[in-house]
Q: What sequence folds into this?
């Protein structure tokens, strides 16, 4: 039983990997990534699109490098 629970947890983690990446990077469109991942992630194409969107999306301002002082 514990093995089944562990396998379900691993499968869910892999399935929602694009959403996890988007929320951890604080991508501005993380909610959109989640919706695509939730409804189209079961198709390989939808999962790849969500993953690409999560890693290529603009991160929050706190992660972006600020220009040097004086500019």
A:
């Amino acid at each position: 039983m514990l093995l089944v629970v562990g396998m379900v947890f691993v499968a869910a983690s892999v399935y929602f990997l694009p959403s996890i990446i988007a929320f951890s990077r604080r991508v501005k469109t993380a909610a959109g990534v989640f919706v695509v991942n939730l409804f189209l992630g079961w198709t390989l194409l939808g999962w790849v699109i969500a993953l690409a969107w999560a890693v290529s999306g603009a991160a929050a301002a706190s992660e972006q490098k600020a220009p040097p002082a004086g500019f």
Q: What stands out?
A: The longest helix spans residues 2-15. The mean pLDDT is 90. The chain has four helices and no strands. The helical segments are 2-15, 17-24, 30-40, 44-56.
